[in-house]
Specification:
mainly alpha; 155 residues; 6% strand
């Protein structure tokens, strides 16, 4: 922890001084130009601009897209099974709708019959119970007297 002292004198240490080393900038060297002859000489195109100047240059081929990978063929059996499944689901849905329609139509007809019975029964009730002797043009029949007269024997 404490430096060793020999005979009362402090110990001498060697001191190293580090100086940063500068990094030299990268040397950019021009790549040697190697002339390459194209396989074919491209055609030179000249265009006349509207102001009369002529621009001459090489035509550049447009970039061609990558060819599309061919899709694997789909078997006829798979297509037929898929179409058959769709058809089966359509038929089942149609039958379900038809059944629901028939049930709704039956309930509607039943409701119409009940409505007709209520209206007709109400009309009959008004005819039977609503007539007093005071209404004009109506005939009141006393059933007991009529029955008695009918069963009366003349002697």
């Amino acid at each position: 922890m404490y430096p060793n002292h020999t005979h009362g004198q402090p110990a001498q240490r060697a001191v190293e001084v580090h100086h940063p080393t500068p990094i030299p900038p990268p040397v950019v060297q021009a790549a040697p130009v190697v002339p390459v002859q194209p396989g074919t000489v491209p055609a030179v195109a000249s265009i006349v601009l509207p102001d009369g100047r002529v621009v001459t240059g090489y035509a550049i081929d447009p970039a061609r897209p990558e060819p599309v990978a061919a899709k694997p063929p789909v078997s006829r059996a798979a297509v037929n099974v898929a179409l058959g499944g769709v058809g089966f689901l359509a038929v089942c849905g149609g039958l379900l709708l038809l059944t629901s329609f028939i049930a709704a139509l039956t309930a509607f007809i039943g409701q119409l019959i009940v409505l007709a019975a209520v209206i007709f029964g109400g009309w009959i009730a008004v005819q039977v119970l609503g007539t007093n002797g005071s209404s004009k043009g109506s005939t009141t029949v006393n059933i007991r007297k009529a029955t008695f007269k009918r069963n009366h024997f003349r002697g």
